[in-house]
Amino acid sequence: MKQNIYDNPEFFHQYKALLQRPSNYNRLLEQPTMKSLLPSLTNLEMLDIGCGMGDFAQYCIQHHAKHVTALDVSSNMLSIAQSENAHPQIDYQLQAIEDYEASANRFDCITSSLSLHYVKNFEAVIRQIAQMLRPDGVFIFSVEHPIATARRTKEGNWIYDEQGKRLHYAMDNYQEEGIRQQTWLVDGVVKYHRTIATIINTLIDHGLSIDKMVEPQPSEEAIQRLPSIEKELRRPSFLFVKAKK
Amino acid sequence: MKQNIYDNPEFFHQYKALLQRPSNYNRLLEQPTMKSLLPSLTNLEMLDIGCGMGDFAQYCIQHHAKHVTALDVSSNMLSIAQSENAHPQIDYQLQAIEDYEASANRFDCITSSLSLHYVKNFEAVIRQIAQMLRPDGVFIFSVEHPIATARRTKEGNWIYDEQGKRLHYAMDNYQEEGIRQQTWLVDGVVKYHRTIATIINTLIDHGLSIDKMVEPQPSEEAIQRLPSIEKELRRPSFLFVKAKK
Q: Which residues form the Methyltransferase type domain (chains A, B) (predicted)?
């Protein structure tokens, strides 16, 4: 999370353009899955880690959450959040989760969409989250799927034939956890690969119990709107975990 | 489990030869991981699903289990078990788990090594296991890793360059659960691919809580004894789950 690629002007310009497309992975796959995993939000005290432009925080308030603390490391993101999704019950903070302090048992629900693969010390962050969550509280997050982050390469992982047809997805280096430098919109985006076992066991070791795992599949409608998303059936891009304290 | 490839004479001949090698995946990777996940077995009532030649059942008795019910669908396997690993506290039964009946809460510990990917109806078997397990009982199993079973192909999934160097592992068809016909020792071995999310959620939906996941890595010693096992660092062959009722 401390990596702040979102304040790189070129990255941000391209990312904003991507997010504003009516058909993108966030709108068609990630956000519908995240919303499907939420409990009733009525009167919940929430923390959203990596809140971006604040659409999700706004959604939570519209669905009767009591209050959302919404963290992001990017001032670019937060200035859009403040102008487009400001609300008296949303507290936007320019803050990395690693540096954020809150009293124990403060939140009923903690969420994070596609941000924890930027975190270097996953265990420390999960320890923090487990402390901030009240007993029976819910933690729901998505990360890039370990199948997708495993291979140490800057090239894409889809392998094509000479006619440009996708043959299969290349997997490698699965057990080598750590930095993956990728080209995504710009060069040198740093993400961290962890195995599925590490992700799950870290939660359990910090007193969280696994409630559900989701490897989302695109709906028929999503495939009609963005045909290339059909490849999600061949290998998952995202992994969701819902856990309880 | 009802598929009984182990009573195919050609398969069995080759399988036996494989298992008798001092360095194979069972000895170097699967069994050490399974044993590392076991609780203290003292005085436990155990069920081993897909017991094969009975070495594991014998190990459990040596480690003070009270009794092991050991099921297998292969009479070839069980005749070796009876001659090499017979014990008054082990009850070998020629039985598929799907057809096995036991009273509720009967077992303290249920294990299964690399057999549940032969089961067609995973949910029904997990329901059965959850019923047969006593409260606080432990269920530990390994299956072929969904990363390894995903791709619908009879060829191998390692992709080589012209010099025969392994380039990467091919992943595909991940979300298409169901039959995978593979060539393993003989043609037409039928296994079932399921996603990681399906495996985990099926356990949770039947009242089991996830205690640990393991994607085993070979030890230095294992790599010295069988250098080709190093490729397990590039993609996992096995997935272990330890769950509690």
A: 47-141
Query: What is residue B4's predicted lDDT score, i.e. its pLDDT?
Result: 74
> Considering the domain B5-145+194-244 in this protein, what is its CATH number?
3.40.50.150
Contacts of B214 in chain A (CB under 8 A): 197
Question: pLDDT by residue (tens digit) across B88-146?
Answer: 999 999 999 999 999 999 999 999 999 999 999 999 999 999 999 999 999 999 999 99
Find chain B residues with C-beta within 8 A of A172's C-beta.
Answer: 168-169, 234-235
> Which pLDDT score is estimated for B189?
80
Contacts of A234 in chain B (CB under 8 A): 171-175
Question: Using one digit for the tens of pLDDT, what is the confidence trace for A195-243?
Answer: 999 999 999 999 999 999 999 999 999 999 999 999 999 999 999 999 9
Closest-CA distance of chain A to residue B78, Å? 33
Angle, to 10 degrees, between the axis of helix B196-205 and the axis of helix B122-132?
40
Comparing CB atoms, the residue among B197, B211, B232 nearest residue A213 is B197
Cβ B217–A175 below 8 Å, yes or no? yes
Question: For B9-29, what is each residue's pLDDT tens digit?
Answer: 777 777 777 777 777 899 999
ipTM of the complex: 0.94
Asked if the model's pLDDT at residue B227 lies above 80, the reply is yes
Task: Classify domain A5-146+193-244 at the CATH superfamily level.
Answer: Vaccinia Virus protein VP39 (3.40.50.150)
DSSP string, chain A: ----GGGSHHHHHHHHHHHHSSS-HIIIIIHHHHHHH----TT-EEEEES-TTSHHHHHHHHTT-SEEEEEES-HHHHHHHHHHS--TTEEEEE--GGG----TT-EEEEEEES-GGG-S-HHHHHHHHHHHEEEEEEEEEEEE-HHHH-S--SS-SEEE-TTS-EEEEEE--TT--EEEEEEESEEEEEEEE--HHHHHHHHHHTT-EEEEEE-----HHHHHH-GGGGGGGTS-SEEEEEEE-
Residue from A161, A213, A232, A237 to probe the interface with B (highest B Cβ count within 10 Å): A213
- Say if strands B107-113 and B45-49 run parallel, antiparallel, or are unpaired: parallel
- For residue A18, pLDDT over 80 is answered with no
Domain ranges of chain A: 5-146+193-244
Q: Among A172, A200, A212, whose Cβ lies nearest the Cβ of B168? A: A172
For residue A214, give the nearest of B173, B197, B217 by CB distance: B197
Please tell me which residue of chain A has the smallest CA distance to B166.
Answer: A172
